[in-house]
UniProtKB/TrEMBL annotation:
Designated name of the protein: SH3b domain-containing protein
Keyword Protease: no
Keywords assigned by UniProt, alphabetized: Signal
Annotated signal sequence range: 1-25
Organism: Aurantiacibacter xanthus
Length: 162
């Protein structure tokens, strides 16, 4: 008799947990696009379609590289990279951690504060990737391997509204 009472209770708990997990999965699928993400692994494939059955178009070997997520399809994200290339990446290879890449000509100044008159901390070359912090008044907090400072927002790809 005791076993009969436990089984329906366990089944009910399983149904509630399953419904909760389905709700989480559904909410991940309806994430508002576009949004910023970054590559969270040392190697990821960009495919021409949203499945492992589609051919690989590009191989990325740049952990932390920012991408713009344009569409969501189950476990896949249609993304755009800093060069404008578009394709599909597995969502598990991406993070919502904000990142940016330095763009433009010549080195970008990293300052102690968000101001052109603030003390110069160092320079970074175009192509350097770092974690992006808050942006305000044309300047963004930017961290590269633990070195923190501020860079002009117009020198970054990955800031602002996607």
């Amino acid at each position: 008799m005791f076993a009969r009472q436990i089984i329906p209770a366990v089944a009910a708990i399983g149904c509630v947990l399953g419904a909760g997990l389905s709700a989480v999965a559904a909410s991940a699928q309806t994430a508002e696009t576009p949004y910023w993400a970054s590559i969270s692994v040392s190697r990821v494939f960009m495919r021409v379609g949203p499945s492992m059955n589609y051919p690989i178009e590009w191989v990325y070997k740049r952990e932390g590289l920012p991408v713009k997520v344009l569409r969501v399809n189950e476990g896949w994200r249609y993304v755009e990279d800093p060069d404008g290339k578009r394709g599909w990446m597995a969502s598990r290879m991406l993070s919502r951690t904000r990142a940016a890449i330095v763009t433009g000509e010549g080195n970008a100044a990293i300052r102690a504060e968000g101001s052109a008159s603030a003390a110069l901390r160092w320079h970074v070359a175009p192509g350097v990737v770092g974690e992006l912090g808050e942006c305000s008044a044309g300047w963004c907090a930017f961290s590269v391997r633990g070195h923190r400072g501020f860079v002009e927002a117009d020198r970054l790809w990955g800031d602002g509204d996607p």
